[in-house]
Design brief:
The chain has 387 residues and is of the alpha/beta class. The chain has 13 helices and 14 strands. It binds pyridoxal-5'-phosphate. The site of pyridoxal-5'-phosphate (PLP) has 15 residues, from helix 3.
Length: 387
């Protein structure tokens, strides 16, 4: 059966050029970057070259990049690290209601430990309005954390405007850029953030490696204790092969950015207009003017997202629904509910995330299968057409 992977926001394959770059660091160049002999020096050089390369693309200083095990760890370190460093100054944190669980759960943990968190609501297109942030800032606010691009809808926030508002009030600003990195050509000076998280496996790098950008003057308390790795902020022997892969993945993403952006945008436009002409009662979710080029979130009235995911999987097409099925009860996506989308429609939402595993010529085939499967599921759905 023809297999089509449309879940690039969940993870991507490792780009063959990335894999080739990594291989020697598993075999002959296996040294510990902290060792002073030649094996160690070779690993250390690869580590620092990678840091420099990434800093060049992101437009920051190499020493402002800390390597981590991925987006989740970077988010935890940024949020808890600043909270613990600044708790004497204040105990209020601002985030949004549409963040990834890595951010939301870090905030919930802090709430259980004496901090107060405000969860900003987006507008119906998923954007956090600058005034919403302005009105939430208090004297005791120490940190604002708002994601760059949303993993479910692809909606991009105006981070420069939001960070500017935080800075006017003397509040540090972190952004989870896991879904924008490698997809849109940002630099850190353009965004104006103090901290930023990215993860290798979301842009054709390996899993288990990511980075946290930390502006020079920002103080954080480390969460891992041990050796003096990564400027004393992240103890643990560095994942040199992974870091070399992360740097290569960033290089390839910035090298191919324009071509890949335009290719994905063409696919997305063809997919959305194809769906609109072939399938009725659908709602495309998110701000299409401010969106990463690979993500389409669409709700199919009258059916459950989960049944669409399972039906498409049987046809060889991998997609995802924002809803999580916990012990038989399906919860609608917190992102879509926060945007004010009614639960019935949020339940029928599917995320299609395109990428390098897809060709433009796949679109017609995907639309054919989708049209047929939606019609079939609606035919047996007790909900469809009964409202
Ligand atoms: C995937 C993802 C994360 C988590 O990154 P991992 O490297 O998988 O831990 C965090 N934030 C967003 C927006 C993501 O999409």
């Amino acid at each position: 059966m023809r297999k089509i992977y449309l879940d690039h926001n969940a993870t991507t394959f490792v780009h063959p050029e990335v894999f080739d770059e990594m291989k020697p660091y598993f075999t002959e160049k296996f040294g510990n970057a902290s060792s002073i002999h030649e094996f160690g020096r070779i690993a250390k050089a690869a580590l620092e070259d990678s840091r420099q390369k990434i800093a060049g693309f992101l437009g920051c200083k190499p020493k402002e990049i800390i390597f981590t095990s991925g987006g989740t760890e970077s988010d935890n370190l940024a949020i808890k690290g600043v909270a613990f460093a600044l708790h004497k100054k204040g105990k209020h944190i601002i985030t949004s209601a549409i963040e990834h669980h890595a951010v939301l759960e870090s905030c919930h943990y802090l709430e259980k430990n004496g901090f107060e968190v405000t969860y900003l609501k987006p507008d119906s297109s998923g954007r956090i309005l600058p005034d919403t942030l302005k009105n939430a800032i208090r004297k005791d606010t120490i940190l604002t954390t708002i994601m760059h691009a949303n993993n479910e809808t692809g909606t991009i926030q105006d981070i420069a405007a939001l960070a500017g508002i935080a800075h006017e009030a003397g509040v540090a600003f972190h952004s989870d850029a896991v879904q924008s990195t490698g997809k849109i050509p940002y630099t850190i000076p353009e965004l104006g953030v103090d901290m930023l998280s990215a993860s290798g496996h979301k842009f054709y790098g390996p899993k288990g490696v990511g980075l946290l950008y930390i502006r020079e003057n920002i103080k954080l308390v480390p969460l891992n204790h041990g050796g003096s790795h990564e400027s004393n902020l992240r103890a643990g022997t560095e994942n040199v092969a992974g870091i070399v892969g992360l740097a290569k993945a960033i290089e390839i993403a910035y090298r191919d950015m324009k071509v890949e952006y335009e290719r994905l945008q063409r696919m997305k436009d063809a997919f959305i207009s194809g769906m609109r002409s072939r399938i009725k009662d659908i709602m495309v979710i998110g701000d299409q003017q401010n969106c990463v080029p690979n993500t389409v979130n669409v709700s199919f009235n009258g059916i459950e997202g989960e049944s669409i995911v399972l039906s498409l999987d049987l046809k060889g097409i991998a997609v995802s629904s924002g809803s999580a099925c916990a012990s038989g009860s399906i919860n609608a996506s917190h992102v879509l509910l926060a945007m004010g989308i009614p639960p019935e429609q949020a339940h029928g939402a599917i995320r299609f995330s395109f990428g390098r595993a897809n060709a433009e010529s796949d679109i017609e085939y995907i639309l054919e299968i989708l049209e047929r499967e939606i019609a079939r599921i609606r035919g047996i759905s007790p909900l469809y057409g009964k409202a």
